[in-house]
Fold NAD(P)/FAD-dependent oxidoreductase.
Amino acid sequence: MTAREYDLIVIGAGPVGENIADRAVQGGLSAVIVESELVGGECSYWACIPSKAMLRPAAALRAARDVTGASAAVTGELDRAAVLARRDEFVHHWDDTSQVTWLQGAGIDLVRGHGRLSGEREVTVIGSDGAETVLSARHAVAVSTGSAALLPDIPGLRDVRPWTSREATGMREVPASLAILGGGVVGSEMATLFTALGVPVTVIARSGLLRGVEPFAGEAVAKALADAGADLRTGVEVERAERAADGQVVLALSDGTEVRAAEVLVATGRVPRTADLGLEVAGLTPGSWLDVDDTLRVRGVDWLYAVGDVNHRALLTHQGKYQARAAGDVIAARARGGAVDDGAWGAHAATADHSAVPQVVFTDPEVAAVGHTEASAKKAGLDVRVLDYDLSWVAGASEVADHYTGQARAIVDERRRVLVGATFVGQDVGELLHSATIAIVGEVPLERLWHAVPSYPTISEVWLRWLEAYGRPAPE
């Protein structure tokens, strides 16, 4: 057994853990990261990066086919092997050497193995060889272990060895057919991917697709999937699963029908990776989400921080990295006895998690949303006005595609006359999202937005159309 002491111990070396440690080191602290798998975490090897690497070829092909002049040059279909090879390049063939090199250059130590809290400000790491390392922290321990796929309690489901997002993004061979349980972001993106790869896909989504965004977004994605040949089953549940003699998975549905597929992908939610972290040392329940304040400190434990998915605030890599910047900075500030700026929009507070969380869903069509939906704004008690616009009417849309379809919705807080939500659906709309995020975070008055002139001809002209629909007040 060896023992080491640092100012900060971070459990989990994904993008979140890397950013916590990096900010703390920049603030003058020493830091070590504990990781049981690959440095770079879920996002780099089994989620954001590989999924988008595989989705992009299909999106590029669709875009080329909808532009006269380019479409004539498209003579083939997607090359499945090349799509997987592209994915392999993006994930560095699941080799984290470059990430480890970055850690070393940033002055952050790495201990490989499974880390558990073993005392106050203490983490014990068991390496793959059984060696034990005890780490003690002078100031703080940060948990950034992320989340894992939730496997619902369906009779027989575990026995059929279902895929999760890891198996889908890490597949070595494309399956002959696929059933997808769940209509959230993962389910919708994977349905888009596998349909584009020519795989017969059945999506079983009791409440439809993309429930968390505006209804028209999920409806547009559902229509596109159906038009592409996917079989969407809504309003039903899986009652049991079994692997048939021919190797296929058979799913019995609540309406008396059944679905057969070579593989089944479960995308019904996430659970925190906190079951074996020794949380009981801090008086917390193993396997639970960790409740934090806006500085990401676990409530009731002044030395423990929970950053990223584990705190259940916003399960998105970019939001986790945002939290990590605040957490790393505030850990360093508290360690030095410096001032803590934890008020609304303060340097040490993750305020945006409450009202300005942006997300792009890389389906066909793309969905980009930030802030409130109409329903959530009304539930929050805001007096809102909804501005809808057909993106095909914007001049820039016809430059992008010959048959562009899409929709944009803005949610305006009438009392303050500022934007509090925006949703875009259509090709390439992800690139529109940050302007909406800035308008919401900055609480830019609508009167000032009239002076933010969108370039012509671009899809960004929708901003002018929203303002025209709202109406410019007459000068007093």
Notes: DSSP finds 14 helices and 21 strands in the chain.
